[in-house]
Amino acid sequence: MVRTRGSTAQKETPKINDSAEAVTKSKSRKRSRKKNETDEGASKSKKTKSKKSEDTAQDEGKQEQPKINKAKLDIIFADYGVLPLQDSGLVKIEEATPETILALVYMAMLTSARISHVLAYQSVKCLLEAGYHDLKKLKQSTWEERTEVLTKGGYTRYREKTATALGELAEFVEERYDGDLNNLLKRADSQPEKVRNLLQEIKGLGKVGLDIFFDSAQGVWPVLAPFIDPRSLETAKRCGLGDNVNAMWAALDRNSIKMCKLSSALTMIRLDKKEKDYE
Fold it and tell me: N or C terminus of the chain with fewer C-beta within 10 Å?
């Protein structure tokens, strides 16, 4: 009988173990459900925060731009609203021809130097009169000939240095961009920052020169628009237009030619010291 009881006791023991195991599994399932609920709550919280961030960004993007005094814009355009190279003799100044782009580089190089802007622009016109907007003719010119042309324009202070830079520019454009700086724009994937980086390789074109080029080239390379160099932006503030480039861009119907004319006008107002006339 004792053996029978012992045998029976041994058979009943596994039932106790099974019960304990069931309790353990039940607790485990509860912990698992609780963890899943916590994770789902955290996930929902993240999504909510993300949605709020997106909504905030969209709201910020929809914020109205400061209003620009269009009457003031009309006056400025009436007085100074012309394209760079307007009276240079070039025919297609509103088109990105190789000649136009090269001429705009000349203007950026010469007008960025510490010299009278009148003499600098006059010298640019002399370069174009000599036919140097044609890369082939520039390549064929001698250093002495280029120096003589710059002297004619009154660019005497930097003529030797600039004559050398022009010769190097001809080789640079021919070798790197197959004679057409429009290929630089293609190589930059039409991205303004990349355009600036590639243009920095041109000797004689520093930071100020690059800003001048962006001001004047946005009319023919619209991907550069909207752009107003820092000094002209300060002029815009003094003239009552504010300093929000995007607001001006919107007021000009996002037209790159108009933006180019505005940049040029602000530059001329600053150089002529006429800011007070528009305050």
Answer: N
